[in-house]
């Protein structure tokens, strides 16, 4: 079993959030080695991304979901550090506005899917419909037909999400879903850091404390969502998030692995185009 297999859920095994790892269990020597490996991975990712962009046959959508303070923003920033911004779109989704809420819940995500050859990082995603909506029963206030808001509401949403991701996969998208699994103790530590450090005060919200009270419900919602939607064509990766450097390493491993599987190549010129190269070279040399 590879390292990534440890954290991958593709429907072949059950996800139990109570047994899921939040800590890396690495010592300081291992930490230093892993940080170096992350740097090497980012270099390889950068090389493959250039080919991926030129090849333009597939798209990658990286979905990040987590409890508050699990490190989604930092992970996005870290992944971006090794990528050409021209080939990446980043979206952070908040509460739907009135126009978005008047459409089906997948609409605002579908319209932001990247063109082939580009990647997209989604900080939160369509899974909010089966996470925060489920925890707070928000669907009961939806302005929709009664037939759409019944006891099978979330079963329908899981089915719709699975069908949506299958549709994307069959249209040349690679969907990679990542759950940053932070412990309740580490979340508390990071909240206190936001309060204690002036440079991080802006990150803290009173709502963070309110949502923390629903920790057990969110944990169950994540477990249910992952088990209902984990497929081989759209796997989940449940990553330990108590040490950010380890999380960043695993994300770099995931992205590198999927790029290797895609195996992009630079487009090949036709024989006629190759034959014209010498003519173009001569024209450039002979003209000022």
Q: What do these coordinates show?
A:
Strands 1-6-5-2-4-3 form a 6-stranded mixed sheet, sandwiched between helices. The model has no long low-confidence stretch (mean pLDDT 95). The protein has 288 residues and is α/β, with parallel strands linked by helices. It has helices at 3-7, 28-55, 72-80, 98-101, 107-110, 132-135, 153-169, 184-196, 206-212, 215-229, 244-262, 271-286; strands spanning 8-9, 59-66, 88-92, 119-123, 173-181, 236-240. The radius of gyration is 22 Å and the shape is globular. Helix 2 (28-55) packs parallel to helix 11 and helix 3 crosses helix 11.
Q: What order do the SSEs take from the amino end to the carboxyl end, as H and E?
A: HEHEHEHHEHHEHHHEHH
What portion of residues is helical? 40-55%
Structural class, by secondary structure, is: alpha/beta
Look at the structure and give the mean pLDDT: 95
Strand order of the largest sheet: 1-6-5-2-4-3
The tally of beta strands, per DSSP, is 6
User: What integer value in Å does the Rg equal?
Assistant: 22 Å
Instruction: Profile the largest sheet.
Output: 6 strands, mixed
Beta-strand content bin: 5-15%
The low-confidence parts are none
Summarize the helices and strands and which ones pair or pack.
Layout: H1 3-7, E1 8-9, H2 28-55, E2 59-66, H3 72-80, E3 88-92, H4 98-101, H5 107-110, E4 119-123, H6 132-135, H7 153-169, E5 173-181, H8 184-196, H9 206-212, H10 215-229, E6 236-240, H11 244-262, H12 271-286
Parallel strand pairs: 2-4, 2-5, 3-4, 5-6
Antiparallel strand pairs: 1-6
